[in-house]
Amino acid sequence: MTRKDRDKTNDNNSNRTDMKDLQPINFPGLDPRRPLVIAGPCSAETEEQVIETARELAAEGVRIFRAGLWKPRTKPGGFEGVGAEGVGIF
Predict the structure, then answer these.
(1) Per-residue pLDDT tens for 37-64?
(2) Inter-residue contact 23 to 36 (CB < 8 Å)
(3) Greatest CA separation found in the chain?
(4) For residue 40, what pLDDT is reported?
(5) How far apart are the first and last CA of the chain?
(6) How far apart are CA 47 and CA 52, in angstroms?
């Protein structure tokens, strides 16, 4: 198979730009006509912070909460997140 044939095959299969196969994701209790908002702190640092943030977001209509337990280092010695200790918060 030549490179030209390979490129043609890739164009026809793996690089599809049509969206015919997309299906909506519906969650019980969420209006599918509204935007899906997933929100929460970049870094979950304390249980109090997580609970307070979740309550504030819920009061604003956010129904899917997320928070980071591990944070990639942005500089040596930087905050790395609470890690496995934070799993119990959720």
Answers:
(1) 999 998 888 899 999 999 999 999 999 9
(2) no
(3) 61
(4) 94
(5) 52
(6) 8
- Residue pointed to by tokens 């918060």: 89
For residue 82, what are the CA distances in angstroms to 18, 42, 49, 56? 42, 12, 13, 22
Q: Round to whole Å and give the CA distance between 86 and 64.
A: 18
**CB 88 within 8 Å of CB 50:** no
Angle at 35 between CA 37 and CA 50, to 5 degrees: 15
Looking up tokens 């390979």 gives 6
Q: Which helix H or strand E contains 38, and what residues bound it?
A: strand 38-39
- Write the DSSP symbol of residue 39: E
Kindly report the CA angle at 39 between 33 and 43, in degrees rounded to 5?
165
Two structure tokens written together for 11: 């164009």
Cβ–Cβ under 8 Å, residues 49 and 23 = no
